[in-house]
Amino acid sequence: MFKPIVFMFIFTKLFFSANSKTHPADIKALNALKNGVDPRSITPGSCLSSWDFTIDPCDNIFTDHFTCGLRCDRVISGLVRVTEITIDPVGYSGSLTSVPWDHLRYLNTLDISDNSFSGLVPNEFSNLTRLRRLGLSGNSFAGEIPSVLGSLHQLEELYLDNNRLHGAIPSSFNNLTKLKRLEIQRNCISGEFPDLGSLKNLYFIDVSDNNISGGVPSTLPLSLVELSMRNNKLNGNIPHDIDKVRFLQVLDLSHNMFAGTVPSVLFRHPSLEQLTLSYNEFSSLQVPAVDITLNSNLIALDLSYNKLRGLLPIFMASMPKLTALSLERNEFTGMIPAQYAVKAAVAGNDNTSSFERLLLGGNYLVGPIPGPLLGLKPGSADVSLADNCLYRCPDAFFFCRGRDQKSAVDCKSFGPTIP
What sequence ranges are listed for the domain Disease resistance R13L4/SHOC-2-like LRR (predicted)? Predict the structure, then answer.
């Protein structure tokens, strides 16, 4: 009885191999990937629950046996190779270290995001030389980012965010000349941000919520459109030639340790639309020429929770597209400029936008409420003047609510110019 069973097994295996469309190396790698997943995390109806290696994977995609997770394409050899692995985010757990990644030579997309994989990011990923997209977001990978990822010269998108990675961002990333998008936010990354200035295609960087130190790199990719370095340990100066990054639209450096002066180049940048510098230690603003601010594209500007002093900068009211301005929780004094009140109270036109948000609370502003603001109705604009030194700002006005005005003692102790 034993020999016929063995013969039948061998015959079945040979028949399967002879008629298989999928390259045997790819099948081996896929099988190892599934075997590396904790069976308890493979739920009924999930992609991996349908992977049945008694039949050919690429010949049975979208059937009951391989319902999802794969894409295959025919190559010159005549065999079909796996070109994409994108598994569903259902909480798979396990490790990737036992997978022979060098077998998947035609893989251009690997995305296992939003699961519970753990362990190290495999160095063997460096063998995926055709990879264009690597998505490891939202897992529990730990350890350092392998420097060998810098050898993936075809890589266009790299998602390492929301893991437990530590150490520095490898300088080898400067070799990823086709990289367009880099996301490493919400890890434990430390050290200084590397020089990626030679990357001509990189348009999006998010390294927020880490422990990155140093300053904003003096050389940034000129193709950059969005840069978020929020909630790190950055300090130093913002590069005065950041206007050379002429396509930059979004810059978020909030929740860091920047101090000194906010350079005027940020207010006259040719394409910048959203600038967030809140929760830093800035103490002054470099005022640009008024005629230059008339060409500003800024729509939203947040300088709240700094240590900015002096009078409210009038030039901000002349920015034609600015609709959201937050200067709250600083140390501004003086009266509220009439230009601010008019921009908040008067409807915009084709050339100039009105303030939809004007947050000035938590400063040391004095004097009466400007007349144009008195006619504002709740819901017309988000305006806050609470916690200042204004003369009569009762709760009858919605923009005075939230906190009372400061006491006369607090106002006078701040500066002798406050009556």
Answer: 101-332
**How do residues 279-317 score in pLDDT, each as one tens digit?**
999 999 999 876 766 789 999 999 999 999 999 999 999
165, part of any domain: yes
Asked if residue 180 belongs to a domain, the reply is yes
pLDDT tens for each residue of 333-386: 999 999 999 999 888 787 889 999 999 999 999 999 999 999 899 989 999 999
The answer to whether residue 23 is domain-embedded is: no
Q: What is the pLDDT of residues 50-102, one digit of tens each?
A: 999 999 999 998 888 899 999 999 887 678 999 999 999 999 999 999 999 99
Closest CA to 222 of 238, 204, 199, 205: 199
Q: Which of 406-418 are b and which e, b meaning 16 or more Cβ less than 10 Å from the residue's Cβ?
A: beeeebeebeeeb
Provide the domain count of the chain: 1
CATH number of residue 274's parent domain: 3.80.10.10
**pTM of the prediction?**
0.91
**Which structural domain range is residue 76 located in?**
69-414
